[in-house]
Amino acid sequence: MLKENYEKVKENIVRACEKAGRSPEDVTLIAVSKTKPLSDIEELLSDTDAVDFGENKVQELVDKYENVSRPVNWHMIGHLQTNKVKYIVDKVCMIHSVDSLNLAKTIEKEAAKHDVTVNILIEVNVAQEETKFGLSCDEVLPLIQEIKDFPHIRVKGLMTIAPFVDDPEDNRVYFRKLKDLSLDIQSKSIDNIDMSVLSMGMTNDYEVAVEEGATLVRVGTGIFGARNYNI
Ligand SMILES: *Cc1c(COP(=O)(O)O)cnc(C)c1O
């Protein structure tokens, strides 16, 4: 049952908050519904307090957006191609995966066309894995300096996808590094740049991420069960 899974994850988040002396209200659980049917989303919407859902494909997000029975906060968490920005810019509450000036420029242009302001996070490849998207820590501040005057973009913080590891403790160092980077940027008090959001932690490691300061955790498998990519 999805409800039990969801409530279990929420309990674990509360426990991780207690351990770290944080308030559970400061952590939002995003249910990552990618590859899962709309009926799963509807089930969570009717049985729980879930309102935040994450998708990583533009077409899938748009389909679900158009068919869901009540308003949902959609989070674009996957790699985003510039030619697809126009389909989601007015539908999402946040784009987690901005990792280039070119993408930011496209988001600015499309947001202006749709007369919306878009919340974004800068994706950081903290662990410097070759297979992953995202900027290195050194590249974040220079990109933010370029984006800060874009009128239709609000930088809200940072996002990372930690390595796939057996022991979630192995990722603590990367979560801490992302938090330190956000504090470092916050301390510069750059106009229009807010570093209050830290999107980090997935099924395997969200408790450690919460202990290290995550404000958004993205949990798929832990709520919906394993994904089947072959259907
Ligand atoms: C799929 C995905 C998740 C959720 O992964 P789980 O391990 O199933 O919790 C989180 N973040 C991103 C960016 C994803 O693509």
TrEMBL record:
The lineage of its organism: Bacteria, Bacillati, Bacillota, Clostridia, Lachnospirales. Belongs to the pyridoxal phosphate-binding protein YggS/PROSC family. PANTHER family: PROLINE SYNTHETASE CO-TRANSCRIBED BACTERIAL HOMOLOG PROTEIN, PYRIDOXAL PHOSPHATE HOMEOSTASIS PROTEIN. This is Pyridoxal phosphate homeostasis protein. Its cofactor is pyridoxal 5'-phosphate. GO terms for molecular function: pyridoxal phosphate binding. SUPFAM superfamilies: PLP-binding barrel. Pfam families: Ala_racemase_N. Pyridoxal 5'-phosphate (PLP)-binding protein, which is involved in PLP homeostasis. It comes from Coprococcus eutactus. The keyword Nucleus does not apply. CDD domains: PLPDE_III_YBL036c_like. InterPro entries: Ala_racemase_N, PLP-binding_barrel, PyrdxlP_homeostasis. It comes from the Bacteria. Residues 7-227 form the Alanine racemase N-terminal domain. The modification N6-(pyridoxal phosphate)lysine is found at K34. Signal peptide: none annotated. Coiled coil: none annotated. Keywords: Pyridoxal phosphate.
